[in-house]
Design brief:
7-stranded mixed sheet; Rossmann fold; 2 domains; alpha/beta
Length: 231
Amino acid sequence: MGDDTVRVKPQYLARARSERGELVLRRRPHDGAIELRVNGVFVMDTAETTSERLLASSALAACRTQPSEGLDVLVGGLGLGFTLSELLADARVARVVVAEIEPEVLRWHRDGLVAVNRPALVDPRVQIRIADVRQVLASMPGQSLDLVLLDVDNGPDFLVYDSNADLYGSSFLRTCRAVLAPGGLTAIWSASRSEPLAERMAEVFDAVQCQRIQVRPGERDEEYFLYLGRG
């Protein structure tokens, strides 16, 4: 007998091309989730958002003190907005600067294609800058941030763009350190343990911690690592 299974193709919501390649936003037929792909590679979706949220909540939990005027935070990467939404759920957060390199990603949010996190974009605490996170951090005044979150890849071994390798190098880490207020944190989420990253962070920050985080999306167990560098 032949296979009578009807294969339903994903619904493509938007496509864009930049100097870094092709970005695609599409809806999956089997669960209705929206997913973001870059150059054909899956980046994230709206079905499993645990890791994006844990990046924010775990880093906030590691913050020792709260400035009198609240926490100033910078996030590298808007993505589908779940890290940003989790940050804004914490009343201690006074300001979030989001550095997003792809203007189309922001436009898709504003057009309502990723409606689930649209309220975060109009929160008065949020400032979104369409630029490379390296440029945004380099333009920030010294000791002006309490927390820097890197959410542009899934760690140094899983790069969205090859050029992002610089984000895990000593020079950029020193830039992160320079903008941190005393006791501030730089937090990097990684899908795998990276001793080279830990060693480079130890050369730059006063203290470095690697938190092992267990995540259970669906029926499978996954392990992630959060690297924290304290200024």
